[in-house]
Design a protein that fits this description.
The chain is an alpha/beta fold. The protein folds into 2 domains: 146 residues, Rossmann fold (3-Layer(aba) Sandwich); 148 residues, Aspartate/ornithine carbamoyltransferase (Rossmann fold), CATH 3.40.50.1370. It contains 10 helices and 9 strands. The protein has a 5-stranded parallel β-sheet with strand order 7-6-5-8-9. A 4-stranded parallel β-sheet has the order 2-1-3-4. Strand 1, helix 2 and strand 2 form a beta-alpha-beta unit. Helix 2 crosses helix 10. The two termini are 20 Å apart. The relative contact order is 0.16.
Length: 312
Amino acid sequence: MEKEVLSKPYLLSSDDLTIEDVNLIFDRVKYFEYHYSLGATFNDLNGYTVALAFFEPSTRTRISFEIAAKRLGGNTILFSSATSSLTKGESLLDTLHTIEAMDVQIFVVRHSGCGVPLFLQRNTNKIVINAGDGKHEHPTQALLDSYTILKHFGYINGLKVCIVGDVLHSRVARSNIILLKKLGAQIAFSGPGTLIPRHFSIWNVNFFRTIDEAIDWADVIMLLRLQNERMDSGLVPSLSEFSRLYGLTVERISRKPELVVLHPGPVNYGIELQYEAPSFPNVLIQTQVTHGVFVRMALLSLLVKTYESRAK
């Protein structure tokens, strides 16, 4: 394939991506999907080491980045803050430079603090990828969500996507709003008023007070997990009340079987989604996970090409 490059040699926000960047990433995803199915091997990251610096728990994102890097011939190291010198008072910046001195060129960072990946990128000339920072953004999740929608429908422009649940605390929601609107989708929110950003009108999105109204309107429902670890108490009366008003049940899906359902995981079954719901073919949660590996392969491959082109 041609050595095409992205507009920036890092990914901190969905805003870093132009439409051309997204199309280039998705073309590269399709390339990897096809050739991997034929048993091909890849060396895009040969000689590169990826540091998986996850300061918050993660299963899907961390493992998919690790698999993606290894499929591309790269090396990975898992950095754990609990067993690092951060516990002895070493600063985050000193830790970055220590790992950088070991010839690590790519940093995949998840942190509870908003802006940490940006801070690190400003202090290194290596590649930094935001794998989720606080309540701010999670751009690779938005990429895999958009790719999943594109693969299902064949297009994104004009589709109606309603994000349901805890929008207030969701970095997934923020990245998806930016990226999906950039790709021409119509966006709406549905959830308790206490879990919707107070000034959401700045995004120019619709709002539905019930999930039933959202289902009637939407082509895609994107469910969000209730993030109890990020919220104060009292934002929802009870889990049963939230589930009754905003949970997606088999009965609700059955009324519109063509409805596509996404969820970034992990799923709180029995709260935002009924246990039996994934049996419906358009509930694409596991498809999102599968696409996540190929999307991150494409991103890593293109960021390395971009990094190398800037270094010449």
